[in-house]
Design a protein that fits this description.
This protein has about 280 residues and is of the alpha/beta class. About 45% of the residues lie in helices and about 10% in strands. The chain has a five-stranded parallel beta sheet with strand order 2-1-3-4-5.
Length: about 280
């Protein structure tokens, strides 16, 4: 005899039990991080055999820094206001770049007897050092520029050749306005907080050193040589707790290798700037 059909109330109970099992399995998969797209459910043809997992959002597309607006207008306006109150000297040593220069509070003493103007600002990119140079570089007619910028560009997602190209443009504009100015480039630091991008920073430093060999009156100073130990690891006491910016002892170490280069650049420009002195900028 053929099996007798189940009563309607039994069939309803079975369907309810199946639905409850499905919901329980889905909840368990979510809690265990099991990919729901791979969860096969033992259900009949009237129920879905797979539960699709929503796709994660696509990674944000990097917008090159050259396409972003400049961010540091207030910093630049503050420099200009200070210059109006106390005009800095022309033909001095100009610190041009990002926050590792801005935070160097005793740079004037470290680089004495040369007159020093510190125009490091914010966490600036080379786009901003370049974008504001008509306001905080060229008006000072510097005799020597100490330039330290580019690491922030790479940390923001630009490839190493992007800041290097902007540095080339900076040099062209500087030479056009002040052809005898010397430039001392500081390597970007291999700080512990940027370990993930060390290969890109190393490439930037190598390419920047090569650029310096192409130009006259340009020096490259690898400050990592004194900020790291024999294994290339950053010395903790030479960095602040943020593992990015130099500590007071870090600046002492930097000055030890930077000052000889600044002295050499100052001597190399003696003939060009002889008699010009270090007059206040208008």
């Amino acid at each position: 005899m053929p099996p007798r059909p189940l009563p309607p109330f039994v069939r309803a109970a079975v369907r309810a039990a199946v639905r409850a099992a499905v919901r329980a399995a889905v909840r368990a998969a979510v809690r265990s991080t099991l990919p729901l797209a791979l969860l096969v459910l033992p259900v009949g043809p009237t129920l879905p055999t797979r539960v699709a997992l929503a796709q994660p959002p696509a990674a944000a597309t990097h917008v090159p820094l050259a396409e972003r607006p400049l961010r540091m207008a207030k910093d630049i306006e503050a420099f200009e206001a200070a210059d109006r109150l106390a005009p800095p000297p022309k033909h001095a040593v100009l610190l041009s770049g990002a926050s590792s220069l801005r935070l160097w509070k005793d740079a004037g003493e470290a680089l004495a007897p040369h007159p020093v103007i510190n125009r490091g600002f914010g966490g600036s990119y080379t786009t901003e050092v370049l974008g504001y140079m008509d306001r905080i570089t060229l008006p000072y007619a510097p005799r020597v520029v100490v330039f330290h910028c580019g690491g922030n560009d790479i940390a923001a997602g630009d490839p190493p050749d992007a800041p290097l190209g902007r540095i080339r443009e900076y040099l062209v504009r500087l030479r056009r306005a002040s052809p005898d100015t010397a430039v001392v480039f500081m390597a970007t630091t291999r700080a512990a907080s940027r370990r993930a991008i060390w290969p890109a920073l190393d490439r930037f430093n190598r390419d920047l050193a090569a650029l310096c060999r192409e130009e006259r009156n340009i020096w490259f100073v690898d400050i990592n040589a004194v900020l790291a130990d024999a294994d290339g690891e950053p010395r903790p006491n030479l960095y602040l707790d943020d593992k990015l910016h130099p500590s007071a002892w870090g600046y002492v170490a930097i000055a030890g290798v930077l000052k000889p280069a600044v002295d050499a650049a100052w001597r190399a420009t003696e003939a060009a700037f002889s008699g010009k002195g270090a007059a206040p900028a208008p």
